[in-house]
Write a structure and sequence with these properties.
Elements (H helix, E strand, L loop, with lengths): L2 H16 L9 E16 L8 E14 L4 E10 L3 E12 L5 E8 L32 E11 L4 E8 L3 E4 L2 E2 L23 E8 L5 E11 L1 E2 L10 H9 L4 E13 L2 E13 L1 H8 L6 E12 L1 H4 L6 E16 L13 E14 L2 E12 L4 E14 L1
Parallel strand pairs: 8-12
Antiparallel strand pairs: 1-2, 1-19, 2-3, 3-4, 4-5, 5-6, 6-7, 7-10, 8-9, 10-11, 11-13, 13-14, 14-15, 15-16, 16-17, 17-18, 18-19
């Protein structure tokens, strides 16, 4: 039997055996998860386009608390029915609320969705596109670092040394203008590393209902091109290696604010990439030297207007988003700016939550690019749930 068909039943069996089990020492095993299914339908005046139904993902969580200081958390993700992978797996050791250590397969703290992506937690059937391309959600790598909170300053923080994206492997590039860094995620699978990268984020929660985040990431991509120890080959070897590596500096700002039925949120992400001209020339690709994305969204719960006593939620929302994979290019003669990589979307719809952890979703997406091309609009329906 194919291994990918064995993993999920084995994980389910373990979950059933250990669910919320607690031993005499006070240690406890917990089980949870989330799932979402989608229907997408492109709409075009020129042709009838078939729709798509997709069990997008089923994620199973198993965590174990060894003591009030030490814990382990893991998630197994099953995408599009056939694709199984580990989404998270890490240990926390908490010295105090002020500081703890974290090590393992960790989500990179950038933006909102990469860390908080359970489907009932965001409006719209799909995640915002900047959280798919500029921040390649779900973005995680093997990492180690510190986390904690300073309640007197209303701050939470995370800081990690982490492995970087792969840019060149087995003679092929993993990065491009269209997909950006997304295909470079190594996902902890026999990852290549030459030099570690750094990721950090602080969140401020000093005003009731408001959370503001500032994140940064810097380092180099990884390459499987070997470096020679033979003196007369060192220069050529170094030049070959250097042409396969891209420097990355990414900064992100995000906010979430909720008051009296109104919820609004937004993100701004900017990535600066260096050495892209040499990289594009060697690997015949069109990676930009800068990528930018943002979105602003507002939603309002109208359920109290329909039924004052209801604990259910019916949120109407609208979102404006843009992501540009060619915000800048290093050498416009070799890699001209491609307007098709500059996307602008307007999304509006509704989310109905009979419970906080369950949502039915609808949205309508209007799409265009900087070339002035009107892309097919899209109707989307979805359902999502999480439980912990």
């Amino acid at each position: 039997m194919n291994k990918k068909y064995i993993i999920l039943p084995a994980f389910l069996a373990m979950a059933a055996i250990t669910s919320n089990a607690q031993d005499s020492t006070g240690s406890k095993t917990s089980v949870g998860g989330y799932a979402e299914a989608h229907y997408h339908q492109d709409i075009s005046m020129d042709e009838k386009i078939p729709g798509e139904l997709d069990l997008h993902r089923v994620v199973l969580y198993v965590g174990h608390t060894f003591s009030d200081k030490l814990s382990f958390k893991s998630e197994l993700e099953w995408e599009h029915v056939f694709e199984a992978e580990v989404e998270q797996a890490y240990f926390d050791y908490k010295f105090s609320d002020l500081i703890g250590m974290r090590a393992g397969y960790v989500l990179t703290p950038m933006g909102i969705i990469n860390e908080y992506h359970e489907p009932p937690l965001f409006n719209g059937v799909d995640r915002p596109n900047i959280d798919r391309y500029i921040v390649p959600t779900t973005w995680r790598e093997l990492s180690a670092g510190f986390f904690g909170r300073l309640d007197k300053l209303s701050l939470k923080y995370q800081a990690y040394i982490t492995n970087g994206f792969i840019s060149h492997k087995e003679g092929k590039t993993a990065l491009s203008g269209e997909m950006g860094l997304r295909e470079g995620r190594q996902e902890g699978a026999e990852s290549i590393i030459h030099s570690p990268n750094f990721a950090a984020k602080i969140d401020w929660y000093g005003i009731s209902g408001l959370k503001v985040g500032l994140a940064g990431y810097m380092g180099n991509t990884q390459s499987d091109v070997p470096l020679s120890n033979v003196s007369n080959l060192k220069v050529a070897s170094q030049l070959s290696y250097d042409s396969t590596v891209v420097g990355i500096k990414m900064i992100g700002v995000d906010y979430r604010y909720a008051i009296n039925g109104l919820e609004t949120r937004g993100e701004f992400i900017y990535s600066m990439l260096s050495n892209t001209a040499r990289f594009n020339q060697k690997d015949s690709t069109d990676l930009g030297s800068a990528m930018m994305g943002y979105y602003i969204e507002a939603g309002y719960n109208i359920m109290p207007l329909i039924c004052m006593a209801s604990n259910q939620k019916l949120a109407l929302f609208a979102r404006i988003e843009e992501y540009n994979m060619h915000q800048d290019v290093e050498d416009s003669f070799v890699t001209p700016v491609n307007g098709a990589y500059n996307h602008r979307d307007f999304v509006f719809g509704a989310s109905y939550r009979p419970k906080d952890n369950f949502a039915y979703k609808f949205d309508y997406r209007l799409r265009s690019d900087a070339n002035g091309e009107e892309l097919p609009s899209q109707v989307n329906l979805g359902v999502g749930v999480y439980f912990y």
